[in-house]
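To whoever is on call:

I kicked off a structure prediction for a single chain this morning and the downstream step that reads the tokens threw a length-mismatch warning. I double-checked the sequence; it's 347 residues and nothing unusual in it as far as I can see. Pasting both halves so you can look.
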Amino acid sequence: MNADLHRSDGIGVYVITGFLGSGKTTLLNHLVNDAGMQDTAVIINEFGEVGIDHALVESAFEDALLLSNGCLCCSIRGDLLDTLETLVVRRDMGQIPEFKRVLIETTGLADPAPIIESLTAEVVTGRGFSLRAIAATVDALHGGRQLDSRFETRKQAAIADLLLLTKTDLAAAEEAASLKRRLRALNPGACVLDVVGGVIAPEAIFTLDGFNPSAAEDWLGEAETHGHADDHDINRHGDDIRAIAIRRQGPLSWSAVRHWLRSLASLRGGDILRIKGILHLEGCAAPVAVHGIQSMLHPPQVLKGWGAEEPASRVVFIGRDLDAGGVEHALDKALAAHGIAAGGDAL
């Protein structure tokens, strides 16, 4: 793996998901009319569900509206990848204005993992798109019950980079605080932000870069801190999704780690929602970032350097019914089988 394989800037892609009734549509109502949405293409399910002020519509295209604030609203038709491709073609033909980023709304029942896998596929990145972050809306009034009863809600919360806690002005303070603790246990690396009346500044989403390997250090620090501190919340609620952190001192064999991650992705890919890690590898002076979504593992990326921190390998898994002891044991087996013979294996 060479350093020149770092992701390019590209057109930033942001996904907003959330269960039915969680306030996602209200939030989008405010976002599309915000001045900070200039040069943004918003892909929504249905125009009728998002309250676009037609007095602000500057021009209309087929399945698209350009607002006076420079936000381009597009209605999804069929496949998401086809919609993105159509945006690029129409932009290149001069039929729609240039755009710097894309915000995609998913349906309330959508499983975000396949969407993320599609957006990180070469057919998308090859067209200049770069997935940056996932935001999920969670209802402060009913979110606890939805987490109890709907696996989709737990999965959306667990896979997100930003958790938007809506309707906090309507929920009791202790109820909202309890839900925040539970969300941090489900996804300790995510930022949790209160949203009142659906109002949020666009930069709260667009400054995120959860899929940038260089941001892994901050995410891992949060995950390790909250993941251990909030174990009691996980057990109390009986959530099947949790975060586990694996840490090892000393340089590791890339061959062993690769076998370990591939085996887990192959055997437990349906249960592993997200993998993020920084590795201290033999023969590599700089840290190496790894990242995966379910069964898809992205190529390792060499970062700039360790800085003042002592080199160590740290990997956090977020998934369903994961056993930390079993994951540790699998790593030990891989190191025993591959560590010595392939100690200098190149990335």
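Update from on-call: the warning came from a stale cache, not from the record. Cleared it. Sanity check on the structure: The first strand starts at residue 11 and ends at 18.
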